[in-house]
Amino acid sequence: MGHSFGGITAVLATVKEPRFRCAVALDAWMFPLDNALYPEVSKPVLFINTEKFQTPESVAKMKRLSSRNSQTKIITILGSVHQSQTDFTFLTGKFVNRIFSTRGSLDPYKCLDINSRAALGCLQRHLSTAQ
């Protein structure tokens, strides 16, 4: 599991390390993923995106991966920004938020809850010891 550049790193980890059975990518920055590696990403990935960060090109790259694996999912949390998936959003006050837009319109605790539930659901589904 990783955020931003760490999100695509988590996806690549499933390619490089056979013990990883899935990945959760929080607002993954997709551009470092080389086109030649797409066929090698065969394990499920959950992409949890924020509303204000992703570009159409980045989402197209995610869709390219999801078209290769029916268990790969893409969700977008409306009212969230890139920092919504980190603890930084809780450290900034209203003044800093107004200047740097560190919070979206969605309550940061609600956003954290959505992120946590989605990630946990993915991990439970793909890491179950019954498999």
Automatic annotation (TrEMBL):
What is the main EC category here? hydrolase
Keyword list, A-Z: Hydrolase, Lipid degradation, Lipid metabolism
Q: Where are the bilayer-spanning segments?
A: none
This protein's source sits in the domain of life called Eukaryota
Task: Please tell me whether the keyword Ribonucleoprotein is annotated for this protein.
Answer: no
Q: InterPro entries, per this entry? A: AB_hydrolase_fold (IPR029058)
Residue runs in coiled coils: none
Any Pfam family hit = PAF-AH_p_II
In terms of SUPFAM superfamilies, this protein maps to: alpha/beta-Hydrolases
Q: Which GO terms describe its molecular function?
A: 1-alkyl-2-acetylglycerophosphocholine esterase activity
Q: What is its EC number?
A: 3.1.1.47
Which GO BP terms, alphabetically?
lipid catabolic process
Q: Which PANTHER family match?
A: PLATELET-ACTIVATING FACTOR ACETYLHYDROLASE (PTHR10272), PLATELET-ACTIVATING FACTOR ACETYLHYDROLASE 2, CYTOPLASMIC (PTHR10272:SF6)
Protein name in the entry: 1-alkyl-2-acetylglycerophosphocholine esterase
Organism field: Struthio camelus australis
